[in-house]
Structure formats: C-alpha cells, structure tokens
UniProtKB/TrEMBL annotation:
The keyword Iron applies. Signal peptide: none annotated. Keywords: Iron, Metal-binding, Oxidoreductase. Belongs to the iron/ascorbate-dependent oxidoreductase family. The lineage of its organism: Eukaryota, Viridiplantae, Streptophyta, Embryophyta, Tracheophyta. Residues 213-313 form the Fe2OG dioxygenase domain. Pfam families: 2OG-FeII_Oxy (PF03171), DIOX_N (PF14226). One of its GO terms (molecular function) is metal ion binding. InterPro entries: DIOX_N, IPNS-like_FE2OG_OXY, IPNS-like_sf, Oxoglu/Fe-dep_dioxygenase_dom, Plant_2OG-oxidoreductases. This is Fe2OG dioxygenase domain-containing protein. It comes from Saponaria officinalis (Common soapwort).
Length: 360
C-alpha cells in the first residue's frame, strides 16, 4: 500500500523579517520539542550545559589521491576510507577550488541575504516546490528551522529554473555558474576517489549518478537568536544525496555531526570544503560508508552564511548496492530504489530517516 502523503507547511514570514519585529520573542512553531521526534537519531535535545568536542578527523588531500604517481596516494585513499566509514564526512583540501573563488561565492550570498526582503521575495518558493527563496517545509505541527535559504538547481544545465536565479547582486548568476562548473568536476573526482578507496571500479558510484544526475545549490542564512538553544538552524537529519559539498562560513561555527550517539562540532578549516555522505551513497556502498546525521546550531549574536551543493541521481534512475560490495559482505543490506528523493522528503518533514524504510 502506498504511503499517504504528508501535509507540508511553510512559515508565513522569513526568519530575517521575523526577527526585525520580534527580536526577543521566539514564535512557538520554531521551538524544538524533543518529544515530537519518533526516530531515536532525532531525539537530540540541545542543552546549554552541553559542550561538544570538535571532530578530530584528519583532512583529506584530494590532489594527492588524484595523482596516482604520488608515493602517498594509497595512504591517502586508506585515510579517506577510514574517515568516511567512521565519521561519514570529511574536510577536503587541495580540491581544485581557489580561495578567491570561494570568497566570491560567500560574497554574493552575503549580498543577497542583505537585500530588502521585498527584493528577496521576488524569488520566493512555494509549498509544493523547494527551489527559490524562503524556508523549509515541515509536516503539520513540526517545528520550523531558524533558517532562510535560496535553493537553486544547477545541473543538468537545461533544467535550470532561471526565474529563481537573481540578478541582484549583478554578479550572482555569473559567479554561481563558474562555481557550479568547478563543483561538477569535484563531484566526479570525489565519487571516483571514494570508489577507489573501497576497492571497486572507480566509475562505480559516478555511473549511478549518471549524465542526468541532479545538482542543487543551497545558500543558507542563519540569523542570530536570543535563545539559540531553543531552536535549530537545521534540525538533525541526514541528506538525501550521494554526497553534499559544504562551503562553511569563514568565522562562525554551527555545524555539528553525530557519531556514536555523541555530537561533535565541525571546525572551520581554512580553504577546505566539508563533504558528507548522504543516504544514497550509503545505499550504493551497501552500508560500508554511513550517511552522517548532522544539525546546525545558531549563534546568539552573529549571523552565519554557508553554501551547500547537493548531488542526487535522476529520479527515474534506479540505484542500489554495488554487486561487488554485496559479495564482499555476503548479503544485500538495502533495497534497490527509484526516486529516493520522493521517499526522503516525506520522511524528513516528519523528522524521520527515510533510509530505514529501504533497509532489508
């Protein structure tokens, strides 16, 4: 029997606009209540006395992996496998994106979120489609994220919905287009590196991503909050993606990852990109690498801006565990699935993990 669709809701007002009129008052729908959560992975209340440690995983030098003639290439591949199997995420350096290019993207993000709300609203999303400016939808009665975002499809090129691509700031489209091209190459390199680290043919994951694989950019704005422990910038969740590539704020931390039922802060590493495993790569790897549960905490006084690039296969493409990895582990642990995103969106709205529904 098909699962009934969840009724989704959008906040009436962007958080940016909300805090101008109610800077010391948090509307009830933004306050997180742990008892609302049905999945133990999400029963993770924030506590003012909690002082999570920083994750202590090593950074991965992608250029060293790509240069097979390097004497350290194999060691770096082993390090990549180790960190993805234990953390489900990693900091990547020497990834092919110049520091100046990352700064340009941060700059246009800051400029966009600094516009008048009326200008931002020209690119507003709707409740039934996630592209555009606004907030995330949630299931009826669930708390909203303390976050405004601009969500844009960047690939395939012919599926770009340009009505959401702002002309203000004037360099926005050009800057995002240039960054997107670099991201496309980085996604290919990372998926091939991960495949090699698991001792499977290097195109194994990239071929499931496919030529019509979808890439989205998500510009995140996290306003400060007078009571930051009562809200989430992003509630605990795993990603629908194969991998997500995050450009962090240069100064303000906030991202945390869950490992062994303990939260760890993600440090800001200069010129690094933070890459995390999503549900669909966990499925393809037959559970060898894990999709990391993560959340975003809010700063009491400072805004935080980040830009994520998400990668998902085309909705009509079936994905599933690699045959070689099934043989190595002796059993297939996940179902083959088509259009995992549709399943994911129904579960994430209710603060549940969709990947549980495809485990065998």
């Amino acid at each position: 029997m098909a699962e009934s669709r969840v009724k989704l809701e959008l906040p009436a007002t962007p958080v940016q606009e909300l805090i101008k009129s109610a800077i010391d008052h948090i509307p009830e729908r933004y306050i997180f209540q742990p008892t609302n959560n049905k999945d133990p992975c999400f029963d993770t209340a924030t506590n003012e006395s909690d002082l999570p440690l920083f994750m202590d995983s090593p950074s991965i030098d992608l250029q060293m992996i790509l240069d097979s003639s390097s004497p350290n290439s194999k060691d770096e591949l082993r390090k990549l496998r180790s960190v993805l199997c234990s953390w489900g995420c990693c900091q990547v350096i020497n990834h092919g994106i110049e520091s100046s290019e990352m700064d340009k993207l941060r700059s246009i993000a800051k400029e966009f979120f600094g516009l008048d709300v009326e200008e931002e609203r020209k690119h507003s999303r709707t409740a039934d489609w996630f592209e555009g400016y606004g907030s995330d939808t949630v299931a009826e009665g669930e708390p909203f994220n303390w976050n405004d975002r601009l969500h844009l499809q960047i690939y395939p090129f012919h599926r770009r919905n340009l009505k959401f691509w702002t002309h203000n700031p004037p360099t926005f489209r050009e800057t995002l287009d240039e960054y997107a091209a670099k991201m496309k190459k980085l996604v290919e390199n990372m998926l091939k590196a991960i495949a090699k680290s698991l001792n499977v043919e290097e195109n194994s994951f990239f071929s499931q991503f496919g030529e019509e694989g979808i890439m989205f950019s998500r510009f995140n704005y996290y306003p400060p909050c007078s009571s930051p422990t009562r809200v989430f910038g992003l509630k605990p969740h795993s990603d629908v993606t194969l991998i997500t590539i995050l450009l962090q704020d240069k100064e303000v931390e906030g991202l945390q990852v869950l490992k062994d039922n303990q939260w760890f802060k993600v440090p800001i590493v200069p010129d690094a990109l933070f890459i995390n495993v999503g549900d669909q790569l966990e499925i393809m790897s037959n559970g060898i690498v894990k999709s990391v549960v993560h959340k975003v905490e809010i700063d009491k006084k400072r805004e935080r801006i980040s830009v994520a690039v998400a990668t998902v296969p085309s909705p009509d493409k079936e994905i599933g565990p690699l045959t070689d990895l099934i043989h190595n582990q002796g059993a297939q642990l996940y179902k083959n699935v088509t259009n995992y995103m549709a399943l994911f969106l129904q579960h994430i709205a209710k603060s549940e993990r969709a990947i549980s529904a495809v485990k065998l």
